[in-house]
Amino acid sequence: MMWKTRRLENRRLLRDVIDRVIVLAYREEVSRLVSSLAGEGFKIDVLRPNYTTEEMTYSKNSRTLLNHRNAWQKAIDVNGYTLICEADFVPCRGIGDFEVFWPLENPRAWGYLYQGSPRLLAIVGPQQFLRGRTAPLVCYVVNRNVASLMLKFFDYEKEACDFRSYFMFDVNLQRYITVLGAEAFIPLYHYGEHGGLPNPEHAMLSFLSNKGQHRADNLMSSLHFLPTYANGNYWSFIRVRLGAHLLGFARLVTGRWISRTNVYRLSPLDMLKMYLIGVRRLISLPL
Hints:
Layout: H1 2-10, H2 14-17, E1 18-24, H3 31-39, E2 44-47, H4 60-75, E3 81-86, E4 89-91, E5 109-112, E6 119-124, E7 129-133, E8 139-142, H5 144-160, H6 169-179, E9 183-186, E10 192-194, H7 234-253, H8 268-283
Parallel strand pairs: 1-2, 1-3, 5-9
Antiparallel strand pairs: 3-8, 4-10, 5-8, 6-7, 7-9
Helix pairs in contact: 4-5, 5-6, 7-8
């Protein structure tokens, strides 16, 4: 009991380290998201783009990348950490009091508060931080160092890709900045849900499972409000959540929860610990 008390006293909370929240939106209604995060004690900016005539010819996914680029430019001017979330993020209740899940002493560490189809790479340090791999940028936290690497990624993609066509920039992002020294981390449970409907452009890619639709496999706590995909129906929400939970178990039992790399040499004991973390992630409530 004394150890638990001491740990609670020493832990850092998201509200302690996040200086600014940037909500990315175009025409979406974000009042519930903004009021929920404001009630958690965060300072919030809503960032809405003014697309040029040329940018309106870009794919929807490319315009989303432009929005994130705008947020990275603002994050460079912030001393601490910036939380960036898209308009369809639904935060968990109490998110301001949730623990920091990345090593603050690492200037190039950043984290996904929400993860789509997450993979665990390693358990890092005495605090057992979870080094992870995922893709969707629904909600994540960066500092100015990581934001500057993301801007380099944008410049690279602008030269390498045709923005009028669909390309999976969020998959490429982590790979690119990891080579530059950035390290991504994930919490044990999702700190919120992807509440929106999938981008119709995802459905055109046959190799994307479930037409690119993704949900949290487990949540840290109940949500501030019903996601859009529930269409105002609580039982529809429960049905989707149960399906996402089952997909999490399928990912675990088929070995897709752990991703081997040449960076970490994983012993059999390491693998066992990582699988046990995967089980713990999925067996506790709430869903």
